[in-house]
Design goal:
With about 400 residues, this protein is α/β, with parallel strands linked by helices. The protein folds into two domains: about 220 residues, Rossmann fold, CATH 3.40.50; about 160 residues. Helices cover about 30% and strands about 25% of the residues. α9 packs across α10. The longest helix has 15 residues.
Amino acid sequence: MKNISTHLSTQLAPIRLGVLLNPYAGVGGQLALKGSDSLSLALLKQTQGQVDIGQSHAQQRLAVVMKLLQQHKLLPRFDMIVAPAQLAEHVLQALNIPCQALNLTVDPQTSADDTVRIAKAMLAEGIDLLLFAGGDGTARDVCRAVGLQVPVLGVPAGVKMHSGVFAINPQAAVDVLQEIAFGHWVAADLAEVRDIDETDLAQGRLKARHYGEMRVPALANHIQQVKCSGREVEALVVAEIAAGFVENMRDNCVYALGPGTTVAAVAEQLGLENTLLGFDLVQSGQCLVNDVTADELLRVAAEQPLIVVIAPTGGQGSLIGRGNQQLSAPLLHKIGRDNVQILSSASKLAELDGRPLRLDTGDAALDKLWSGLWCVHTGYQQQVLYAVQG
């Protein structure tokens, strides 16, 4: 990132904070979809009640931010200019937080164009900072609208999380807002907006494209790094990790093999096809079912031992909460930390330059409980201890 030193808040007047969310962001994760860009009302009806947009993941994440601002008594420092109805207004109303909702009409089935239109309207209102909850698709839409005109801060709530405009979790977003509210100097870094094309993904091609840059208030260890998707991992090392892991797999357990090329190598060792960005259930060397949902994982865990196999995202170090929303907090409570196995090459860990692997389960107590040193499979029958932090 290039650094542009900027003082975001020296004024005595309240900071004009634009607030919006994408109510569909993150919906695809628990349904084992690979994003929400093309999610339609018809699809929501097909899910037969599995998705409640009125209590969507993005709305819950924004609510966490707002509750923390309340607890820290920071609300008087902000004038909230919010997107109407389910796009932010309803969240603040439910918490009795004063806000000014934009006088715009939005359909129940919102679209990317609504995000662009609302973000532009917020610019016209003279906001100082735009806070949004969503994923890479939402970041793309916000970027189309505001570009470099105003700093933005993303609250992570999507399935695809490759962009560098997001706080690592809701608490980190509040920490950044607190620094700004106190009038402290905060750098505004240029951060990349990247996204995976879901149409390509459906055809088995995984490629993150660059869509632009936005300015992000940067606080050390609070903003996620752009995910590195272009560098090839060492094929031999990954194969050795997979071979060692396969030798220790137990026939009496079901294994949920998660996203990523490192975990995909386990399926390759077993001679099985894998889901590019999903979870496949494997037992005794056989695939039971491909691309399972959060509810399906929970049902399996209630019936028999389940071991989740995951790999951190390259460059970011995100372990849970980015691209693997099928791992719900109830599931993780059910199986326990010891039944989550991490695979990673040593070089991928070295890229983190000492930063911990990150947990963002949506359950702050669980994130804290599971923070500490974890064993990571880094070679053939080889493990290292590495710090994991919520």
